Amino acid sequence: MDLTAFFTLHKDLPREGPGLPEDVRWAVELAGTHGEARICDAGCGPGADTVTLAEMLPEAWIDALDLHAPFAEATAARCARFGPRVKAWAGSMAELTGPYDLIWCAGAMYFLGVTEALSAWRKALTRSGKVAFSEPVLLGGDEPQAVRDFWADYPGITEEAGIVERVEQAGYRVLGRRLIIGEPWEAYYAPMEARIAELRAEPVSEALEGVLAEGEAEIAQWRAAPERIAYLLCVVAPA
């Protein structure tokens, strides 16, 4: 894939994966995060969830990082109104130092692996620290072809039990879990559809056309089975 073309499509999208503010609020409340907590938004994308965290926890100190520098810059601009308590920069989520009361990671943990990320992040948590993350999940039973096509590039996907097993392998326990399905995906794909239409209003390069076609195909696969394509949001703590 041409990365320049890929980021041309994704530039200025409000978020880089499915989710809604209520998903963040559910996780924060379950984790018991409050007051002057130290939080990390790992793989923050353009900062949609960073904003929710900052609004929900007005006394919290939040670090947001993403490997893609323009996303980190977009988060910094979006969160400038919160002042110095929210900082964003380009960096690897494999190298968190903390200490954090909560590490939030929306749809990005698969870059490291669930067990691998949780194992690496243990040293970055406070004694009562928690991790909240979302991970692709199969719902079980006979999966429609659209679901198999959608997840074809992620052979490591499992059902819920497989995710729980990976959590436990890292020495953590699951405090709660919640499916991200339906509307949270629309919140991601509707702006992408609009962005594709905007870019198509002008002649595009062959590389960009390929990326736009891939984006359309992904959206079509999701729309073919929106009730079967999901992430699992988990809140976990060291056992």
From TrEMBL:
<dbReference type="Pfam" id="PF13649">
    <property type="entry name" value="Methyltransf_25"/>
</dbReference>
<keyword id="KW-0808">Transferase</keyword>
<dbReference type="GO" id="GO:0032259">
    <property type="term" value="P:methylation"/>
</dbReference>
<protein>
    <submittedName>
        <fullName>Methyltransferase domain</fullName>
    </submittedName>
</protein>
<dbReference type="InterPro" id="IPR029063">
    <property type="entry name" value="SAM-dependent_MTases_sf"/>
</dbReference>
<dbReference type="InterPro" id="IPR041698">
    <property type="entry name" value="Methyltransf_25"/>
</dbReference>
<keyword id="KW-0489">Methyltransferase</keyword>
<feature type="domain" description="Methyltransferase">
    <location>
        <begin position="39"/>
        <end position="129"/>
    </location>
</feature>
<dbReference type="GO" id="GO:0008168">
    <property type="term" value="F:methyltransferase activity"/>
</dbReference>
